[in-house]
């Protein structure tokens, strides 16, 4: 209750470490039938969360925004070709701000 009050929210969740946070947050938001597009260099906790979500997963090359754009364009073209109602599927791009495994920063502005 003290953290929730401090954060000026109704409730708060405490996690013991970042790994448990990400591995439980991803499957809380993304479920079977959703789409996750993920950087190949994401850490094990993220991979665990993605696997637990049972979502469809597409991997893009590490920090390669051109490859990500190609994937997004391909998905959009397939949606159009198959006349998919995109409002029926949640879609997420999953990456890290600072990659734990390789030490790179994500080019978020791109």
Low-pLDDT runs of 5+ residues are: none
Rg, alpha carbons: 16 Å
Mean pLDDT: 91
Largest sheet: 3 strands, parallel
Please provide the count of β strands: 3
Outline of this structure?
The protein is an alpha/beta fold and 110 residues long. Helix content is 42%, strand content 13%.
Description:
Helix 2 packs parallel to helix 3 (44-53). The chain has 110 residues and is an alpha/beta fold. The chain contains four helices and three strands, in the order H-H-E-H-E-H-E. The chain is globular. The model has no long low-confidence stretch (mean pLDDT 91).
Topology:
Blueprint: H1 2-7, H2 18-29, E1 35-39, H3 44-53, E2 56-60, H4 65-82, E3 91-94
Parallel strand pairs: 1-2, 1-3
Helix pairs in contact: 2-3
Name the features.
alpha/beta; three-stranded parallel β-sheet; globular
């Amino acid at each position: 209750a003290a953290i929730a009050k401090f954060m000026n929210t109704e409730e708060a969740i405490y996690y013991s470490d970042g790994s448990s946070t990400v591995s439980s947050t991803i499957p809380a938001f993304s479920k079977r039938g959703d789409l996750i597009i993920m950087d190949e260099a994401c850490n094990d906790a993220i991979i665990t969360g993605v696997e637990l979500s049972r979502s469809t997963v597409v991997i893009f090359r590490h920090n390669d925004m051109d490859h990500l754009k190609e994937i997004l364009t391909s998905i959009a073209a397939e949606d159009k070709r198959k006349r998919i109602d995109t409002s029926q599927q949640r879609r997420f791009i999953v990456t890290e701000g600072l990659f734990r495994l390789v030490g790179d920063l994500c080019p978020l502005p791109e």
